[in-house]
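Async update (no meeting this week)

Hi team, since we skipped the sync, here's where things stand on the single-chain job. The sequence we agreed to prioritize is pasted below, unchanged from the tracker. I ran it this morning and attached the output directly underneath so nobody has to dig for it. Comments welcome in thread, and please keep replies under the output.
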Amino acid sequence: MTQTETRLGFRASAQLAGHLQRVLVDLTALHLNGKQAHWNVVGHNFRDLHLQLDEIVDAARDASDTIAERMRALDAVPDGRPRTVSAATGLPVLPPGEQDTSSVVDLVTTQIRTTVATMREVHDEVDAEDSSTADLLHAMIDQLEKLAWLLSSENRGR
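Output:
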């Protein structure tokens, strides 16, 4: 039995738990920031962008739940409290108030890409310890990068 295996099964090391916590806070912040943008976007192509932001919010919320539940399955304790998320996320702060559609596209695309960058940064060390968890990250990276491409395409040619 390795140090991360017990008679009860595989347990995350402190490093793996820390990596997943980083991913969790960025996904949670992406979810919250996406909703903030959704509520306050105005301007040309409002309705389509408003709906597209909900798709991003749903993806981030689902992914954060998957990561938190994976942490629990590996006997790690996720922390998604607002203060923790605010203090630990790597995502840039969104400006307050109404934002025009073009700005929201750029702001939220950056939010998604920053979240993916965190996943890519921790990926190899996660994979070295637990390939099953790395597979979850693969699927999330694929989905979020697609959403970033679709969203960023709104501003192409402007």
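Quick observations from my side:
The mean pLDDT is 94.
The beta strands are 5-6, 9-10, 41-42, 99-100.
Reply here if anything looks off.
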